[in-house]
Automatic annotation (TrEMBL):
Protein name: NADP-dependent oxidoreductase
GO molecular function annotations of the record: oxidoreductase activity
SMART domains named in the record: PKS_ER
Organism the protein comes from: Miniimonas arenae
Residues that span the membrane, as ranges: none
Species classification: Bacteria, Bacillati, Actinomycetota, Actinomycetes, Micrococcales
Length: 307
């Protein structure tokens, strides 16, 4: 099969199109013919070796965890899926090696859900990691209707989905973003504020009593500003900065594959509750350019590779 792979940690220049053996099926997995694969910030962080202390790596690595495609082979114990099913998955495994930027990928059934007919394969490939991150972080925070919630990085792939899930729950949402994305956030139902110096003052001008929940999808300076933004008894949840837990007494969320959660997200997207913003789609041979775009940190929505 054709695949994008790298044999050493490094910049996007280490990515190359190559031929690799077809994946094994596995007893509790299926093989999916890839139609589209999402690209996420974690993909370039893994590629650069920043997560080598957390995840075992077996070279050559095919990057990518998000996938949408069609089942072409099933394992011995996969009653959930059949050959021909259109699926989407956050296909993260215990070892970094056989990812989704390839013509074929092995997908554990615990990570996969059927793709709703109302979603294109490109839209479905954009949903898993970002959607699960948003859903699971909101759930960890215990957000309730009527609460004031601040979302750091609200126009990004995760943040924009979190805003929509929060609005659907009945929360009052304020989102940080560059001014060029403020109209976009208003269209999603959030009140935008510009990030950067003076962020706390701008956010508190909107909600003077402080926020019941701060959801951080950025880290760094966003966490630095958070203590001033929380109402008494407020909670912070971060997917980007462990200090939310270790210093601020909140939570750090490492997104988990979950077929039921993904099916829930797919239904919300199919019903129009979630709008999936696709920033750009690249062909497989230009996957390195897709990585470079995500690395800029200024992408509205999601970047997808079409295989």
């Amino acid at each position: 099969m054709k695949a994008i792979a790298y044999s050493e940690f490094g910049s996007a220049d280490v990515l190359h199109l190559t031929d690799l053996p077809d994946p094994h099926i596995g007893s509790d997995a299926v093989v999916v013919k890839v139609v589209a694969a999402g690209v996420n910030p974690v993909d370039y962080k893994v590629r650069e070796g920043h997560l080598a202390g957390l995840l075992d790596t077996v070279f050559p690595v095919v990057p990518g965890w998000d996938v949408a495609g069609t089942v072409v082979a099933v394992g011995l114990d996969t009653p959930e899926l059949q050959v021909g099913d259109a699926v989407m998955a956050y296909a993260r495994k215990d070892v970094v090696s056989g990812g989704t930027l390839a013509e074929l990928v092995q997908v554990p059934v615990r990570t996969a859900a059927r793709k709703p007919d109302a979603l294109s394969f490109v839209e479905a490939a954009a949903l898993p990691l970002a959607g699960l991150t948003a859903l699971q972080s909101i759930r960890r925070a215990g957000v309730a209707a009527g609460q004031h919630v601040l979302v750091h990085g609200a126009a990004g792939g995760v943040g924009s989905l979190a805003v929509q899930l929060l609005v659907h729950k009945g929360a009052h949402v304020v989102g940080t973003a560059s001014e060029g994305n403020h109209d976009y956030l208003r269209a999603l139902g959030a009140t935008p504020v510009a990030y950067g110096e003076g962020l706390a003052d701008r956010a508190l001008a909107v909600v003077p009593e402080g926020f019941d929940v701060v959801l951080d999808y950025v880290g760094g300076a966003a966490i630095d500003a958070t203590p001033a933004l929380l109402a008494e008894g407020g909670t912070v949840v971060s997917v980007a900065d462990p200090r939310a837990r270790t210093e601020l007494g909140g939570h750090y969320v490492w997104v988990r594959p979950d077929a039921a959660d993904l099916a829930e997200l797919g239904a919300l997207a199919a019903d129009g509750v979630l709008r999936l913003e696709i920033a750009e789609t690249f062909p497989l041979e230009r996957a390195a350019d897709a990585h470079r775009l995500v690395e800029t940190g200024h992408v509205r929505g999601k970047v997808v590779v079409a295989v």
